[in-house]
Design brief:
Strand order of the largest sheet: 1-2
Structural class: mainly alpha
Strand content: under 5%
Number of strands: 4
Helix content: over 70%
């Protein structure tokens, strides 16, 4: 509505004005180009990693390294990626010194490309890895018996069954890159993209809400096109009658090639973040490498730093608890009640909308909608924003879990005199606790690392770690940035390991 408002009433004058702005058009072009290239590279690398884990006889320890290593970037805010790239690949960077040459220009297109690939690779890998687990490996044996060469066998047994997922991985990677603000904020330089253009319009000297709304609407287009493309790709999906547990045929060259490339790729990604754990612990990186905890102590005893960390913990925890309850209840009503098909579709569509709206667009919408309300500038608006922003995946987790549980439990409970609520609390919830734990972890970790969804909503009083990192960038306080990033990483790692431990305990309890 705001994008259509003008002095003359409701019209398209704002759209005409924005689309005549050469800087905006250039920013859109830059975003499309770098996002498409990054998504192509990410999908290719994600496929290699998933193929190595599922379709090679690479040592199980190396497969575990791949699975664990690829999770690391997800535990950090995307804005940190850029600073890690600067300190790793800059003229005095850790990896530059190791190789003896500056490998690429860190600011602008190349820096964005590297950042986007690291940022989106975990998402592409998990999509492809999940689909690989449903491919019947016996067709590898059949292909070998029919005399197919490696590439023919590779195409028919691994690529063709995954065309839909490969397309999905590309779309997800493209949308994540196109709408991300953190990486351009740190290494974008003069290479403007659509996210930084929106930031400049809204947080400049005079915020321009109508033009900002137009840019936000333009950012929705790739998401809309992506959803349409994913629906088209569904026609390429197929299923097997059964999935056998056949062993893989021996191929030492395949194992060596894919195993080596995958391990080197994961080590390469981890090495980019290595500098983050070195720079704050030396006197003056990279000139004086004597061990020192001065920066860490200064940060940890700085009231402002501690305050934003506490804010982030509180917001993430409340968003995780409330989000888990709301998403679980929504899935429960959809799957375990007798509501009409139309009502179920409405719940599904509402849940999916959250998945298609970029964080910055969502934040801007909240800013304008609650501008004159008491919610503006409060922690509550940040919590609600995070719940809405990350709602879709936990909802789908709960829905898939609840649909697999015995549908007769409610009937049995009713016959025994229990109310529906009692049956849910006594039977259904205990049997889906593992999923509830995963939902909590998803909400918490993503709420800790997000910057796009909260950048327009934070104030000096409600600042979070990610917004503080953005603020510290202006003062070139990179050591403090890395200390805060380490705090986020350690916190998320503890939560992730805690969720894994809880689920193992639940699993062992169920087995007993």
């Amino acid at each position: 509505i705001t994008s259509l408002k003008s002095a003359q009433g409701i019209d398209f004058s704002n759209y005409i004005s924005v689309l005549q702005d050469k800087s905006v058009i250039k920013a859109i072009g830059n975003s499309v180009k770098v996002s498409a290239i990054a998504a192509s590279i990410t999908t290719f690398l994600g496929f290699i990693l998933a193929y190595t884990v599922n379709f090679t006889q690479t040592a199980s320890s190396l497969k575990s390294l791949i699975r664990m290593g690829i999770v690391v970037p997800m535990l950090l805010p995307s804005i940190t990626y850029g600073f890690a790239i600067i300190y790793s690949f800059g003229k005095q960077g850790l990896l530059t010194k190791l190789f003896g040459v500056e490998l690429f220009q860190i600011y602008g297109f190349q820096g964005l490309l590297v950042g986007y690939v690291i940022y989106t690779l975990p998402f592409a890998f998990f999509l492809l890895n999940n689909s690989f687990s449903y491919i019947d490996k016996k067709y590898l044996i059949v292909s070998e018996l029919m005399g197919d060469g490696f590439w023919r066998s590779f195409t028919n047994t691994a690529v063709r069954p995954l065309i839909g997922t490969i397309g999905g991985a590309f779309v997800v990677s493209f949308i994540l890159s196109f709408t991300d603000f953190g990486i351009p904020a740190s290494v974008g330089g003069n290479h403007n993209v659509i996210a930084t253009e929106l930031y400049q319009v809204m947080l400049g000297a005079i915020p321009d809400f109508p033009h900002g709304s137009v840019i936000a609407m333009l950012m929705l287009l790739p998401a809309f096109a992506g959803v349409c493309f994913l629906n088209y790709l569904e026609r390429f999906n197929f299923s097997y009658d059964t999935i056998s547990t056949t062993g893989l045929p021996d191929n030492k060259l395949r194992d060596l090639l894919f195993g080596s490339v995958s391990v080197l790729l994961v080590i390469g990604i981890l090495s980019v973040f290595l500098v983050m754990f070195i720079a704050p612990f030396v006197k003056n990186y990279p000139y004086d490498m004597q061990f020192s905890t001065e920066f860490v102590q200064n940060a940890l005893f700085n009231k402002a730093m501690v305050s934003v960390y506490e804010n982030s913990i509180v917001v993430a925890f409340i968003a995780a608890v409330a989000g888990t309850v709301i998403a679980y209840c929504a899935a429960l009503v959809n799957v375990r009640t007798t509501i009409t098909k139309r009502e179920k579709i409405i719940i599904d569509m509402t849940a999916m909308v959250a998945n298609t709206v970029p964080g910055m667009v969502l934040g801007l919408a909240f800013l304008m909608f609650f501008n004159d309300s008491e919610l503006k500038g409060t922690f509550l608006i940040l919590i609600i924003s995070n719940i809405v922003h990350f709602f879709t995946t936990p909802y789908l987790m709960a829905k898939n879990c609840l649909s697999k549980l015995n549908p007769a439990w409610e009937t049995t409970g009713e016959l025994m005199g229990d109310t529906w609520i009692k049956t849910v609390l006594r039977v259904i919830v205990p049997n889906s606790l593992a999923t509830v734990v995963e939902m909590f972890g998803y909400f918490f970790i993503n709420s800790m690392v997000t910057i796009s969804a909260i950048i327009f909503l934070v104030t000096a009083r409600t600042a979070l770690v990610t917004s503080k990192i953005k603020e510290l960038q202006h003062f070139a306080s990179f050591n403090e940035i890395f200390v805060l990033s380490i705090l986020i990483f350690v916190t998320n790692l503890v939560v992730r390991l805690g969720c894994d431990f809880a689920n193992k305990q639940l699993s062992s309890g169920n087995n007993r």
